[in-house]
Design a protein that fits this description.
Order of helices and strands: HHHHHH
Helix content: over 70%
Shape: extended
Largest sheet: none
Oligomer: single chain
Number of strands: 0
Distance between the termini: 32 Å
Number of helices: 6
Length: about 170
């Protein structure tokens, strides 16, 4: 190992050694609060979704249809470009970008097909969803899961052990 590599490893280890003693508890508390928030939001969406299903009209005239779809596709294009760029740069943020792109592709497939029901364009929308958008989305999700499986995640036990002082050998 060269001196430069050793120095880099020491610098990377320094913040872990200087971590506050309450870090594992703070991480657990943040995780718990995040999960509680998501649980409340998911439960809150149940009555909201039922209300929408009962009250929304089945037909609705839309203004700015072109702006909406061009804007959505522009957002999808930016997400794909960001994913490609971050991938070429081998930056770990590609995980977030690829996940975002996959979600946007799934949303695009859903809206294209569901809004084309009852029109002659439903078949083209369904073919594009089944042959392009959904396969690409699931490919990206599979790639992200592969990248996440390669990551070395600290366990709660390891985090707790890193904050406790080392015991002298007696």
């Amino acid at each position: 190992m060269s001196d430069a590599q050793a120095s880099t490893q020491e610098k990377a280890a320094a913040p872990a050694a200087a971590a506050p003693a309450d870090l594992p508890e703070r991480i657990r508390r943040h995780r718990r609060h995040t999960l509680e928030l998501l649980t409340v939001c998911a439960l809150g969406l149940v009555p909201w979704t039922v209300l929408l299903a009962m009250t929304l009209p089945s037909v609705y005239e839309v203004r700015q249809w072109r702006v909406t779809w061009v804007g959505f596709d522009a957002l999808l294009m930016v997400a794909m470009a960001a994913t490609a760029l971050l991938g070429w740069l081998r930056h770990r943020a590609v995980i977030v970008s690829a996940t975002t792109t996959a979600v946007l592709l799934i949303c695009d497939a859903w809206f294209d097909v569901s809004l084309a029901f009852g029109t002659s364009g439903v078949w083209l929308s369904a073919v594009l969803a089944a042959c392009v958008e959904l396969p690409l989305a699931f490919y990206l999700i599979r790639r992200v899961m592969g990248m996440l499986s390669l990551a070395q995640w600290p366990t709660a036990k390891a985090a707790a052990a890193s904050t406790q002082p080392a015991r002298p050998d007696a």
